Amino acid sequence: MAQISLTFPDGNAREYAAGVTPAEVAADISTSLAKKAISATVNGAHWDMQWPIDADASVAIHTMKDDAQALELIRHDCAHIMARAVQEIWPDVKVTIGPVIKDGWYYDFDREEPFTPEDLGAIEKKMKEIINRRDAVTTETWDRDRAVKFYEANNEPYKVELIEAIPGNEPIRMYWHGHWQDLCRGPHLQHTGQVPADAFKLMNVAGAYWRGDSDRQMLQRIYGVAFKNKEDLKKHLHMLEEAAKRDHRKLGREMDLFHMQEEAPGQIFWHPNGWRVFTTLQDYMRRKQNAGGYVEVNTPQVVDRKLWEASGHWEKYQENMFIVEVDEEHAREKAINALKPMNCPCHVEIFKQGLKSYRDLPLRMAEFGSCNRYEPSGALHGIMRVRGFTQDDAHIFCTEDQIESETKEFIAFLSAVYKDLGFETFKVKFSDRPETRAGSDEVWDRAEAALLAATRAAGIEPELNPGEGAFYGPKLEFVLTDAIGRDWQCGTHQVDFVLPERLDANYIGEDGAKHRPVMLHRALLGSFERFIGILIEEHAGKFPFWLAPRQVVVASIISDADPFVHEVVAELKAAGVLAEADVRNEKINYKVREHSVGKVPVILAIGQKEVEERTVTVRRLGEKQTSVVTLDAIVEELGQAAKAPDLA
RNA sequence: GCUGCUGUAGCUCAGAGGUAGAGCACUCCCUUGGUAAGGGAGAGGUCGAGAGUUCGAUUCUCUCCAGCAGCACCA
Predict the structure, then answer these.
(1) Is the model's pTM score more than 0.90?
(2) Which residues bind Zn(2+) (predicted)?
């Protein structure tokens, strides 16, 4: 047997026979390490304690102290233990896949009966039993045919399909947790007792399509979370409770921002408070856009199907469009129209009015475009995913050479705006060609290359989102997260070689000939609705002062102070502050509580003393202590704070 | 759209085969109180919609609508 040399993190090396396992290495080092070890890293790969090492390698043995590896293994073993528990309780249930995800894992099962919340309790109990059995985890690499036959014999058709999908050069790894068996790429813990029995929890059950394909069988997915100890689990559950308090749907009601109702699913009734946020944000965006060299336009809501046919939407997007058919009796001629789901075709129509010269490019055409899309009912979510929304949309008509500079400028623009709105960091995803698409592969090659090059030139290496591009072009997505960590695409930047072609847009080049412009679809906020939803959750309802729908309440302590309260309110209003008086017959405690709950950033209290001294007592949201300031000083300060960041 | 769950007062929620309850909010009265709920009284509901079973349904069954979680979708 050949000798190999293993190098440890401290730089020391030892010789072993080829094929030695980390378990043997750990035992060689010390019996306590052998017991505590959970896995190893071998040449950078996460390695099961039982996998042989065949050549010289760097090796690190992990224990529960190594968070990354420990959590991955705990969660992965939890997935197996849960699947085993389910099959011990209901032997007929078929198992499929069970990966580790953020904070935990899930496992998909095929079972006729739905799992109930009581079932989850029973499964948890069984899991604890299995953990306490401390069954050894063992693994073997099998021949493909043998594995297929094994699963066919065991009536596990999903596993057969999974094996068939594993590339030919990859090993088929079989794992056993005691007698229970699963196909798995590993690694795993050494025995089930290494999973903390009090640090996991099954969270919920939901349907999920087999292999993510909506044409296939719907399975039942059970989600769980797992941590290294009980305290971490408790912290996680507490964090979820706190996040629920930031839910924009809850805060939207509490702060009287908007409501939604059955008669208009997926559409928003903006209340005065919410609309104030909307218009303040819109005014800000308009100023930023004007400063950024955009021209603003506005286009029709209801547009004849002919334009949608020409643009390709009728073919590719019709099921998401609200179709408007006018009854023949009431119309001179029967026409089929659609509510616009996007602004792009209309913008091309504006571009096409009159001859355009290369001197006009890049032409940045913006619209606060009100769009309607018939989104699937299950996709609707508060004000984040709706059927009627307003985009901060623009289309940049430019030459292929200008893509890079326009993209860079856009990314800088977006970063500045996000920063003003309280987002220092955000994810950038690059989505390439989807299966259903318009345009030739050659055009897609160019569009993808151009966008990627421009993004990298702007100093960003985006995360790849394969196959997620729009039907007409690849896109960059600027992603923000909500209170419980769900991703939402907000900003977007897309290259489109297709639409100008389809709608026959052109400009006269330097050479006097007609040329096709490239179109860049871009939005910073994405939609005002979604972005405001994110803003609410990000700030937990405590908007930056300039964006807050209610900025100051001036509250009287005694009714003799009322005249001065009204004077203060008038002065604040004159300084551009949203101020309101609260002279109700209530105690100051009551008023402070109510306006604190209502997330009003500043409460000014006025009693006998303030009237005499022409001062106010300032209490800021989230702070307990108060300060006394002169009327002039507070008007000056809040007048300044009420200005949008681009005006301050 | 799919799977599961939910729908009772403005909000949060309780309840039962015999046509409904609490707290907060609201209205009125008393209280002028110094920084997160002062006291009292009152008003408020086609129990999501429709059909069925029943002597009787808000409660049981079915269909539909909407919401929630996840999946699929997402220009």
Answers:
(1) yes
(2) 344, 395, 521
Residue A492, nucleotide of least CA–C1' distance: B75
CATH of domain A3-63: 3.10.20.30
Q: What is the DSSP string of A524-546?
A: EEEEHHHHHHHHHHHHTT---GG
Domain boundaries along the sequence of chain A:
3-63, 68-237, 259-539, 545-642
Q: In this predicted model, what pLDDT tens digit does every residue of A318-347 receive, in sequence order?
A: 999 999 987 766 666 678 899 999 999 999
Residue whose tokens read 């700030």 = A539
pLDDT at A610 over 90: yes
Q: Which residue has the tokens 């129209």?
A: A337
Binding residues of A: 344, 395, 521
- Give the residue whose CA sits closest to B75 at C1': A470
Q: What pLDDT shows up at residue A328?
A: 66
Residue with the larger pLDDT of the pair A526 and A484 = A526
Q: Extract the annotated binding site of A for Zn(2+).
A: 344, 395, 521
What is the CATH number assigned to the segment(s) A545-642? 3.40.50.800
Q: Which residue has the tokens 């009693």?
A: A607
Q: What is the mean pLDDT of residues A394-404?
A: 93
> Domain A259-539 has what CATH class?
alpha beta
CA atom of A590 to C1′ atom of B41, Å: 20
Partners of A142 in beta bridges: A172
A618 beta partners = A604, A627
Q: Which fold has domain A68-237?
A: Threonyl-tRNA Synthetase; Chain A, domain 2 (3.30.980)
Which of the nucleotides lies closest to A387 (Cα–C1')? B74
CA angle A166, A167, A171 (to 5 degrees): 75
| Cα A80 to chain centroid, rounded | 28
Assigned token pair, A599? 């997330």
Tens of pLDDT, residue by residue over A159-218, are: 999 999 998 888 899 999 999 999 999 899 999 999 999 999 999 999 999 999 999 999
